[in-house]
Amino acid sequence: MISTSNLLMPRVIVGSPLFNHASHFRESIESILSQTFTDFALVLVDDGSTDATPEIAREYEALDRRVLYHRNEVRLGLIDNSRKAFALGRERHPEAEYFAWASDHDLCHPRWLERLVAALDADPTVVLAYPQNRRIGPSGEILKRKPWTFDTVGIQSKWTRLHVGIRRMRAGNMVYGLFRMGALQRAGVYRKVVVPDRLLFAELSLYGPFVQVPLVLWFRRWYGREFSLERQRASFFPGRRRPLYAYCPWWISHAASLFWTFTVRGDGRPEVSPAAGIAVALQYVVLAGLVHVWQILRSLRGWFVESGVALYQHLRRRLRPLRRAIRTIMPS
User: Fold this and answer.
1) DSSP secondary structure string, 241-299?
2) Using CA atoms, how far apart are residues 191 and 197, in angstroms rounded to an integer?
3) What is the reported pTM?
4) Which neighbouring-strand residues pair with 130?
5) Do the Cβ atoms of 180 and 241 come closer than 8 Å?
6) What's the CATH code, domain 12-244?
7) Taking the chain (332 residues) in consecutive chunks of 10 residues, what is each chunk's mean pLDDT?
8) Which of 18, 89, 132, 278 is 20 to 30 Å from the Cα of 66, by its Cα?
9) Secondary structure of residue 34 in the 3-state scheme
């Protein structure tokens, strides 16, 4: 559904960082523009795509007045491009209450925005709303993995929210939710560190609870296990000398960022005093470090299971001729 209404004061800004996903981009933008909640502006920021992404984006900008397309002259990388989508949307629509990032290759249910806006409207203390999601393959097929559930609704203590969030968050799923604009800006939008979404949600948890809408409203395109810190460094710092802190263990660089934000700069007042900032940084480095160790152990377990299955299948194939030979010489 394409709208031609002159939207002057949208309640929601949807920012979509673009980079070389033309094969799925049209389907993705259609899913956003077909939302039942229409009071939004869509900001497309192209980080130098070399495929058909620019042509598709300009086509929709011409069709729908809610759409703004911007192409960077120099590639910024994923973090700065995501920040630019936020900044351009905020500059153009300073009155907007909520902000969401949208991927250029995932799909949104038509009621994605409607239900997330309703969740934030219902409770002014909530700083982030996100839905359940399902993974889909490159061709759109639903994959087997079931929806993940987690939120911090009803937890009044910011310390408990931080503790629970560090242990149980799935940052890559939560980042495509709907943020309260002021809270997101207070949390730095996106810090320039590896695994920035985990840091964002740790900081954001100190300002209010997260709510998950118990419906599958977002479909995450899954291309297989592609995460690695080196891939993130290449994506975040393209064509530049990467800062040394990018090679620091992420849970340590995140703790240092929290210490700098809350204790040195004092940006967390009144929720987080400079003295409390020290406790935040210490709690983070311990708990996030343990999370990292658990992730390594789980990956190793998965590797051993996969290797064991592969070895078993290999041995079966190699031993099959031997079993046939034994059966031929054994008396019946």
Assistant:
1) PPPGGGGS-HHHHHHHHHHIIIIIS-TTTTTS-HHHHHHHHHHHHHHHHHHHHHHHHHH
2) 8
3) 0.86
4) 212
5) no
6) 3.90.550.10
7) 56 97 96 98 97 98 97 95 97 97 97 98 98 93 90 96 95 95 96 95 97 97 76 85 89 96 95 96 94 75 64 70 70 58
8) 132
9) coil
